[in-house]
TrEMBL record:
This is SDR family oxidoreductase. The keyword Oxidoreductase applies. SUPFAM superfamilies: NAD(P)-binding Rossmann-fold domains. One of its GO terms (molecular function) is oxidoreductase activity. Pfam families: adh_short_C2. It comes from Calidifontibacillus erzurumensis. One of its GO terms (biological process) is bile acid metabolic process.
């Protein structure tokens, strides 16, 4: 299937590693121009070089602190200047700290809000003029399986990831007239550094090994294993592609069947 991504321009946030990097790689493989964004320039440069070597694609990077509105504005402007258009926005951000309600003060809640919800709002706001001018676009918000089923010990993530879902559902109606499609994609237990970190925290809390945590978690997944970032990226790229012409305002999980909610 031709996904219609050749020559399209994509901006992928939190793209120096993990799910963002996997999505950026798949987009480049399909012929899209790809701008990677994240805070760490060393990691970004390394990721961009790796993706270029693997795909022979048109890949660049821009350093951005997504909790800073001016940094987001500059990121979008640099992307548009580099590629002449922004056809695709992949909103993505690292997860907030693990913990329960009593662990967090107002400052922690505010920081998580700015990282995991307000950054998405700001990025969308900045790309909309470009997408409207060119007659359409695709926006994909990366969230978490917690928008279907809360995850114990991740109250900050549980709260703001569901906010992302509400944002996208509302915008799907508002942006339909502009031919801009927006969807939300939630990972289950996908093998990334973030998941390894959470497994370590759980292992320490329970006094068991990381392997024991992983084995127990895998037993809750019908497919019996953690997912690969590339498997998640396959679904993300379809939703961002020209092959998707009629899916908007929807939320999907890539979780191996783990979440039992409808």
């Amino acid at each position: 299937m031709d996904l219609g991504l050749k020559g399209k321009s994509a901006l992928v946030l939190a793209a120096s590693k993990g799910l963002g990097k996997a999505i950026a790689t798949k987009l480049a493989e399909e012929g899209a121009n790809v701008m990677l964004a994240s805070r760490n320039e060393e990691n970004l440069k390394s990721a961009a070089e790796e993706i270029k070597e693997k795909t022979n694609g048109n890949v660049d990077y821009v350093v951005c602190d997504i909790t800073n509105p001016n940094s987001i504005k500059e990121m979008v402007e640099k992307t548009a200047k580099k590629f002449g258009a922004i056809d695709i926005l992949v909103n993505n951000a690292g997860g907030p700290p693990a913990g329960v309600f009593d662990d967090f003060d107002d400052a922690a809640w505010q920081k998580a809000f700015e990282l995991n919800l307000l950054s998405y709002v700001r990025s969308i706001r900045e790309v909309l003029p470009y997408m409207r001018k060119q007659g359409g676009g695709k926006i994909l918000n990366i969230a978490s399986s917690s928008f279907k089923q809360p995850i114990d010990g991740l109250i900050l993530s549980n709260t703001f990831r569901t906010g992302v879902l509400g944002l996208a559902k509302s915008l799907a109606t508002e942006l339909a007239k502009d031919k801009i499609l927006i969807n939300t994609l939630g990972p289950g237990r996908i093998g990334t550094d973030r998941l390894n970190e959470l497994d370590k925290i759980e292992a320490t809390r329970k006094g068991i090994t990381i392997d024991e945590v992983r084995t127990a978690k895998e037993q809750t997944i019908p497919l019996g294993r953690y997912g690969l970032p590339e498997e998640f990226a396959n679904i993300a790229v379809f939703l961002c592609s020209g092959a998707n012409t009629y899916v908007t305002g929807q939320a999907f999980l890539v979780d191996g069947g783990m979440v039992r909610a409808f």
